Amino acid sequence: MDQFADLQTLLKKKRAELDERVHRIKDDARHISDPLEQDSKERAVQQENDEVQDALEKEAQIELQAIDRALARMTSGRYGLCRDCGNPIAIERLRALPYTDRCIDCAR
User: Fold this and answer.
1) Is the distance from CB of 80 to CB of 4 less than 8 angstroms?
2) For position 103, what pLDDT does the model report?
3) Would you say residue 15 lies in a domain?
4) How far apart are CA 67 and CA 16, in angstroms?
5) Is the pTM of this model over 0.70?
6) Please, what sign has the CA dihedral across residues 74, 77, 80, 81?
């Protein structure tokens, strides 16, 4: 576990950033500070922007789930082991994608 302390810190930091991003997206989507325009063309643009924000939120939620699973694996002692073959995941891969649960061979 100690060998992954820096990755755990990185994952927690990334999780906090993503959580903040999701909250900002949700606040913006409710149009609290910037209500929808009455003009139909402008409203259409705002609604398109809402669709993009929805996609970004979903993407962030997926990444948050992956981070949570990685943190759980750290707690259980399974972090750094491939879920498919059980072999260790290369540290270089974990540094590049710290929430991965598959070695490069199984990921292919």
Assistant:
1) yes
2) 97
3) yes
4) 10
5) yes
6) negative
Q: How far is CA 66 from CA 43, 59, 63, 105, in A?
A: 35, 11, 5, 19
Q: Which residue has the tokens 């939620």?
A: 61
Which residues form the domain of 54? Answer: 2-79
How many Cβ atoms are within 10 Å of 13's Cβ, its own excluded? 10
Phi-psi region of 45 (alpha: psi -120 to 50; beta: other; left: phi over 0): alpha
* pLDDT tens readout for residues 10-35: 999 999 999 999 988 887 765 555 56
**Number of domains comprising the chain:** 1
Residue 62 lies in a domain: yes
81 burial (CB, 10 Å; 0-12 / 13-18 / 19+) is middle
